[in-house]
Amino acid sequence: MTPVPLDHLADRTADRLLHALKSGGPQVAANLADRLSITPSAVRQHLDRLLALGRVGFEDRREGVGRPRRYWHLTAEGQTGFPDGHAELALELLAAVPALFGKDGLEALVAARTAANTSRYRAALEGLAGTGPRLAALARLRAAEGFMAELVDEADGDILLVQNHCPIMAAAGACRGLCQAELAMFAELLGPGIEIQRAEHIAAGDRRCSYRVRPAA
To answer: pLDDT by residue (tens digit) across 157-175?
Structure first.
């Protein structure tokens, strides 16, 4: 029989640890060792590795006298390794809205989402004067939401607001109104003295989404 590589064995044990924490909740290393039928020392080695990767965390709890006990738990990063049906659910809901409420219902849904985002962004941009600071703040907000946003200065003086990733791509592909609303929202946030045009579009096959920003003619 071909021997299993040691790194593969380590990954399998780490996966079993993550599943044990997912199914059993926060646990001490000794309990995890019993569940996985391995030594507590081996469990601690794997937990230290997963801790360095950001997939698990711990909380020290004092239970009576003596030293606190360390309870290990999954982090948000650790949760990402398990099946997630958010994209499928979003597509199902988007498909159901026109069927139940017609085209106007879908447009109202997109408008409500856009209004909520615009209000939140406007509050974050409040007090910032000038296109540069407002664009920089907008890029930071979008980056924090997973769009991998950045600003790129063009040779002609224009500025590109670049989004290297679209975390809502599944929904945007099913409802192009989301992308149209995004452009309109950016234009409203930057104000009447600024012209903004879409330059690249992931949904159209481009590698990224980008918006060209310049002073209005």
So the answer is: 899 999 988 877 767 766 7
Please state the separation of Cα 24 from the chain's center in Å.
26
**Per-residue pLDDT tens digits for 43-92:** 999 999 999 999 999 999 988 888 899 999 998 888 777 765 566 767 77
Instruction: Quote the CA–CA distance of 197 and 37 in Å, as a whole number.
Output: 60
Region of 130 on the Ramachandran plot (φ > 0 left; ψ -120 to 50 alpha; else beta): left
This model's pTM is above 0.70: no
DSSP per residue over 30-68, as a string? HHHHHHHTS-HHHHHHHHHHHHHTTSEEEEEE--SSSSP
Q: How long, in residues, is the chain? A: 217
Which domains, from first to last, does the chain contain?
6-79 (1.10.10.10), 86-215 (3.30.1380)
